[in-house]
Amino acid sequence: MAEATIRDVARRAQLSVATVSRALNGFENVSEQARERITAAVAELGYVPHAGARSLSLARNNAIGVVLPDLHGEFFSEFVRGMDREASRRGYLLLLSNLHAGGQQAANALRAMRGRVDGLIVMAPHLGADELSAALPKGLPSILINTRAGAGEHPSIHLDNAAGVRAVVDHLASLGRRRLVHIAGPADNIDAQERETAFREAVATHGLDGRIVAGDFETESGEAAIRRLLADGIEFDAVFAANDNMAIGALEALRAAGKRVPEEIAVVGFDDIPLARHVEMTTVRVRIAELGERALQRLVDGLIKESGGDELHAPELVIRSTTDPKANG
Amino acid sequence: MAEATIRDVARRAQLSVATVSRALNGFENVSEQARERITAAVAELGYVPHAGARSLSLARNNAIGVVLPDLHGEFFSEFVRGMDREASRRGYLLLLSNLHAGGQQAANALRAMRGRVDGLIVMAPHLGADELSAALPKGLPSILINTRAGAGEHPSIHLDNAAGVRAVVDHLASLGRRRLVHIAGPADNIDAQERETAFREAVATHGLDGRIVAGDFETESGEAAIRRLLADGIEFDAVFAANDNMAIGALEALRAAGKRVPEEIAVVGFDDIPLARHVEMTTVRVRIAELGERALQRLVDGLIKESGGDELHAPELVIRSTTDPKANG
DNA sequence: ACGCCAGATGTAACCGGTTACATGAGCCAG
DNA sequence: CTGGCTCATGTAACCGGTTACATCTGGCGT
């Protein structure tokens, strides 16, 4: 009752395995008669080709490995969705492996991909350049996502945080806001770092007053940050949080304190999560699915022709009523 | 510059492939000296075993295939997260394939899994029992999720919609509500069907007045449904939508019409999406990640010992302020 | 009638691992 | 000194496909 193999089909059709293989792969040089016998045998045996064996002899897997850290839901599903969309369009499967722990665990996850996939999409923000280079199976085309380390050696795609931040600050400046507060994300998060740095620069460029307070990407930290500022009697007319969650926390704290948004204080987030749309918040939309799509696209194209270098993925400002009362929700 | 194989390692270490294989797989019967030479050779060549070849000879892949339809973000990421968590715990990888189109496309997706995975987790709500049986590679252990067709033949796990609905209706009845409205989901969605049927039954059991109006799982349809009821002058004191999105639409329509929630009209959803928590809505929580976890767990356990039958996955009522003003948010 | 060629089919090596079985070395008991 | 045992190691078959190359057939030109 074991699974039928191509040899079983050959025996049943009274032909050689070579002919069967050719017929199944749509070669021209197979007689009509042979083709019929083979189709019949396949149906009778319920034969399904063994993709693993096929991959081995073709040295080609039609699969892409995806290695991600433990991600927040929204990002994860959108990213995978994007990759999947492009993958199924091109006849590839996605082999998923999450990078829970660090170090050795990560190396194993990457190694397990060898011989099962034709390329790797890796997001490993917490890995150093050396660890990463050591862990990546050499000779397996890889593309790095939002990973600053080793960007020179491997093709990579990064979210263009600076561009998003500039768009926000430009927008706030154009609305006449002068005293901006940035609620930063966790210090060990690269996106948070980049957003903070870009904020400093953009504020300097516009000659605005820019203040930075700490946050950790959670709603509560945004709320707490604003309460502290208000309690300290700090003056400001705009809040730009490093992500939407904190911006929502900020929004609630402001409204609880009786501040009018956006008339007195404008609020801007980053990411454009569904909730942001619901509360009509101005934010920076990151088309994550598109990022995944691009990554896969570039990787698969690169399987044919090597294409190194770093690419940026541009986000987009979405203006809603927490900055502009005229913007409808 | 091709990848090193085990034979290269053997040559370099001046040993046979058998010894190398044994050493790499941690067998006891390898001398210390041989082991050292092998470790050195592996390091020098940067050898990484070819998982595909290994799978072929072991007839074991350490991978589980996951075939899902095009799902809503929240569900998808939670489900995959759950499976992944359990998979990595057990040393399995996840091979993902989305089921975009129907029929032949679906069959191909399933076939492509043969020989790359040890088992299949399939969610194919739109496939008939026959199609499904035909498409599933025979001899590949499979577990069906939220798929009514062919539940008898294969092990499966279903969301217990009826239990969730009963909990809601019990809760509303205990609050003294008598005239309930159910905003149903799309007619071709199985969960929507089950929720609607269960609603009819629960309402009958309690001897309540139950009315059903159409919806399509989108926020707007919930809003429209309520507006229509109000315009028609229909009397009701509770709304139970087949999902949270529609419940939120209903909530907005009620508030826009000046109705007080929950004093005049209670509102309940289904799913417990993050937004539901934010608007403090009573709903039925479906622990999707847990569902994924269970599916994988059961499948992998079943690889050892076949365990047929159908299992139910129970959801849980979460009471918030759209039904009970005392419930804090 | 014969050689040549095209086209269908078969044989067997190969992809990169694992492993049953064979071999050979070293040790000890008789 | 030798038979028999243990233990490390090697040889080669095997997993299930693909494919280079060999073989066979029939048709055609001269």
Write a brief caption for the model.
The structure is a homodimer of 329-residue chains. The first copy, chain A, is 45% helix and 16% strand. The first copy, chain A, is built from 13 helices and twelve strands.
Low-confidence stretches of chain A: none
Rounded to an integer in angstroms, the radius of gyration calculated over CA atoms of chain A is: 26 Å
What oligomeric assembly is this protein in? homodimer
Overall pLDDT of chain A: 92
**N-to-C SSE string of chain A, H for helix and E for strand:** HHHHEHEHEHEEHEHEHEHEHEHEE
List the helices and strands and how they pair.
The structure is a homodimer of 329-residue chains.
Chain A: H1 6-13, H2 17-24, H3 32-45, H4 51-58, E1 63-69, H5 73-89, E2 93-99, H6 104-111, E3 119-122, H7 129-135, E4 142-145, E5 156-159, H8 161-174, E6 179-183, H9 190-206, E7 209-213, H10 219-231, E8 238-241, H11 244-256, E9 266-268, H12 274-278, E10 283-285, H13 288-304, E11 310-313, E12 316-318
Parallel strand pairs in A: 1-2, 1-3, 3-4, 4-5, 5-11, 6-7, 6-8, 8-9
Antiparallel strand pairs in A: 10-12
Helix pairs in contact in A: 1-2, 1-3, 5-13, 6-7, 8-9, 10-11
Chain A binds a DNA duplex (30 and 30 nucleotides) through helix 2 and helix 4.
Please explain how this structure is put together.
Two copies of one chain form a homodimer. Chain A has 329 residues and is an alpha/beta fold. Helices cover 45% and strands 16% of the residues of chain A. Chain A is built from 13 helices and twelve strands. In chain A, the strands form three sheets. Chain A has a six-stranded parallel β-sheet with strand order 2-1-3-4-5-11, sandwiched between helices. Chain A has a four-stranded parallel β-sheet with strand order 7-6-8-9. A two-stranded antiparallel sheet of chain A has the order 10-12. In chain A, α5 (73-89) links the parallel β1 (63-69) and β2. Chain A binds chain B through residues 1-3, 46, 48-56, 61-63, 73-74, 76-78, 80-81, 84-85, 88, 93-98, 100, 111-116, 137-139, 274-275, 278, and chain B through 1-3, 46, 48-56, 61-63, 73-74, 76-78, 80-81, 84-85, 88, 93-98, 100, 111-116, 137-139, 274-275, 278. The structure holds a DNA duplex (30 and 30 nucleotides).
